[in-house]
Design brief:
Purple Acid Phosphatase, chain A, domain 2; 358 residues; alpha/beta; 6-stranded mixed β-sheet; 7-stranded mixed β-sheet
Length: 358
């Protein structure tokens, strides 16, 4: 419930406060109702049928609610989701200065390692249905969720971004949440300069960028040579075939006119969207692949259980990795930064995707 309902910013409240307040209220209400309706039930079948009608109705509604959520997830996983043909080509650690020591060091006494400063470069080869052979081998390097600030500093990012520039893709995709506060725009000025790719360097803004200063950040990115897409489409041609690079506006705060993306006409389509919840637009626009961030891969994950909190109204469905519905593949990266500055079983990453026809 926290995942599904909490992450809709109400009247500009901070996400963390809203999530905490919603969770607290929800758990409190559930606790009070449980005490009221279940205090006389011994949790046996005979005992159930001796309860009042209101208690039986309450238990029935809760049971149906849980069953519906389980059924919804099962239908999604076993019927809606289609297999994605991809393989990990390589994974390499990025060398960073040993002086960067992750906070919350005391957690190691509980067997928990903060992986904040353990970034990877991961390369995948992905086969896409309907992808033209003329664009076979097209490569994208995705950088997402820098969350520039105290823990993700200029010096740290220089090492990470230097590695990204060496990957020499056909295009760079920067999928939002560059900053947390307006003051960070000046501090990181010039950091994203020097990115070059044959098809361009593109960015979409994230929710934190909009909470800080979207206009100022857009101007700074453009000065550094990054093209910011706001429900806009850029076209490229190769051997008679047309490629559309589509950039979605921020889901919660941004432009609502999706017509340019929905009406895009091309033989191959790539959608850049900060939120994986934009997957509806990826499918409706006929994108071959949507590339997103925002979730930080769950950020704090548990063995077998995975992440417990994912900032998505789809719950944990699209927390990280590859997914496919209909003909559209969604890829969600772990990103680089995070807040709070803690990563457990979820290393930061830069990703290179090499796209090939199925």
């Amino acid at each position: 419930m926290t995942n599904r309902i909490s992450f809709h910013p109400p009247c500009g409240w901070g996400e963390a406060f809203w999530t905490l307040s919603w969770s607290t209220v929800f758990i409190s209400i559930q606790g009070v109702l449980s005490v009221i309706f279940l205090k006389n039930w011994d949790f046996t079948w005979p005992g159930l049928f001796s309860q009042s009608l209101t208690t039986i109705i309450y238990i029935t509604l809760v049971t149906l609610w849980v069953l519906w959520m389980v059924l919804d997830h099962a239908i999604w996983k076993f019927f809606r989701l289609k297999p994605v043909l991809f393989k990990k080509v390589k994974s390499e650690k990025i060398k960073v200065d040993k002086r960067f020591v992750a906070p919350f060091d005391f957690l190691k006494w509980f067997g928990i390692v903060n992986q904040l400063y353990q970034p990877l470069v991961t390369e995948y080869e992905v086969k896409l249905e309907g992808w033209p052979k003329e664009f076979s081998g097209l490569s994208i390097v995705q950088i997402s969720d820098l969350h520039y600030g105290k823990y993700i500093s200029n010096n740290y990012l220089k090492a990470v971004l230097h590695k990204a520039k060496q990957l020499k893709p056909d295009l760079f995709a920067l999928t939002g949440d560059f900053i947390n506060f307006k003051k960070d725009i000046t501090a990181m000025k010039g950091l994203l300069k020097g990115f070059k790719a044959p098809l361009g360097v593109y960015a979409v803004l994230g929710n934190h960028d909009h909470g800080a200063d979207p206009v100022g950040l857009t101007k700074a990115l453009k000065e550094d040579g990054v093209q910011v897409l706001d429900h806009e489409v850029v076209y490229h041609k190769r051997k008679g075939k047309k490629l559309a690079i589509m950039g979605a506006a921020e889901l919660w705060f941004g432009n609502r006119d999706e017509s340019a993306i929905r009406d895009a006409k091309a033989d191959a389509k790539i959608l850049l969207a900060h939120h994986p919840d934009h997957f509806y637009l990826g499918k409706q626009s006929g994108a071959n692949i949507q590339i997103s961030g925002h979730t930080h891969g769950g950020q704090i994950c548990f063995p077998l259980l995975g992440p417990l909190i994912v900032p998505s109204n789809q719950g944990r469905k699209y927390f990280g990795g590859f997914y496919r519905e209909k003909k559209t593949v969604l890829f969600v990266t772990n990103g680089i930064g995070c807040y709070p500055p803690l990563r457990v079983l979820c290393q930061p990453e830069i990703v290179k995707l090499v796209l090939k026809p199925l």
